[in-house]
Amino acid sequence: VNILAIESSCDETSASIISNGKILNNIVATQSVHEKYGGVVPELASRAHQQHLIPVVHEAIVSSGIDKNALTAVAFTRGPGLMGSLMVGVSFAKSFAYALDIPLIAINHMEAHILAHFIDEPKPSFPFICLTVSGGHTQLVLVRDHLDMEVIGETMDDAVGEAFDKTAKLLGLPYPGGPFLDKYAKEGNPKAYQFPISDMPDLTFSFSGIKTAVLYFLRDHLKDNPQFVEDNLADICASVQYTLIKTLMQKLKKAAKQYKIKEIAIAGGVSANSGLRDELENLSSQLGWKVYIPKFEYCTDNAAMIAMAAHYKYQKGDFCGLDVSPEARMKI
Ligand code: ATP
Ligand code: FE
Ligand code: MG
After folding, report:
1. What does the entry list as the binding residues for substrate (predicted)?
2. Which pLDDT tens digit goes with each residue over 107-134?
3. Is 235 flagged in the annotation as binding?
C-alpha cells in the first residue's frame, strides 16, 4: 500500500508518501510571503499553494522511488483550515485520484496532528491525553484509539500560539513571534512581572486576556521609560511565557486527574517551546506521567502526519467520493 498525502490547510504546502505504514519522506514548502504582513494573508496563501503544490508532490514521488502508477490512494487535508488553502489541496487530490483511478481519503488536520505520534518510536499507549497547541488551536483530546478521539477541552477565544505571536508583536519581535519570545525568555526571570492567569471553568482555556494585559502593562511602563521594552525584554518574555505555560499546565493536570490518565502527548507548533518542554519534564517526574513529544518536523504543519492518519483510514476502508468538499471548521 503506497499512499500520497497532501497538506495545504494554512501556510505550509506539503506532500508525503507512506508505504505499508512507513513514512518515506516529508516535503514541506513554507510560504515566506506572509512575513512582511505579520500574519497569514489567506488570498496570498492560496496562490502560494497553487505555485508550490505540483513541485512539492513531484519531489515527494520522485524521492520515494515509487512510480506514480504504483500509488494505491491519495489523502488530503479536508479541514479545519483556510477555505482557499484547503480548496487547492482538495481539488488537486481529487483530480490526481481520478486520473489514476485510485481511492481518496479525507483527513481531519487536528486528528493528524495527534497521529504524528505514531510516525516514530516511542508511541503513546491508549488511552492517552493529547494537548494540541498551535497557531490556530488549543485543545485537550482524549484519544481512545487511532481514529477514536474526543475533544474534552478547548479555547473559547484565541489559541495559545496566537497569544505567543500577538504578545511578541507588541514587543516588536518579528513574525511569527513564538520562537523569538521563547529565545529571549531563556535569559529572563519568569517571576519578574505578573500577568493574570485566566480562570475558566472545567477544561476550557482562554488566551485573549493576556494580550490585553500585556498591552496595558507596556503602555503604563512606557510612559515612564520609553526604553522599557529594550531594557527588560528578557524578563517580559520570560514572564509572559511563564503565564501561558502555567495556564496550559493547569488544565492539563486537571484533565489527567479527571480521566486518571498518565500517558500525556503534546502536538502542534507550540510544542517546540522550550519552557513548555521543561515544565512537562518536571511534571512527568512529579506526577509519574509518561510524556510524548514528536520530532519538531512533525509538530508544525506537515504531510507526514496526514499520511499517517491516511494509513489508519485505509486499513478501515474509510474512503470518500469525488464530490467531497473542504470543511474550514471541521471538528474532531
Ligand atoms: P493550526 O495547526 O491550528 O491550523 P498553525 O498551522 O498556524 O495552526 P503550527 O504551524 O502547528 O500552527 O504552529 C505555529 C505556531 O507555533 C505559531 O503560533 C508559532 O509562534 C508557534 N511556535 C513555534 N515555535 C514556538 C516556540 N518555540 N515557542 C512558542 N511558540 C512557538
Ligand atoms: Fe496545524
Ligand atoms: Mg503553520
Report:
1. 132-136, 165, 178, 182, 273
2. 999 999 999 999 999 999 999 999 999 9
3. no
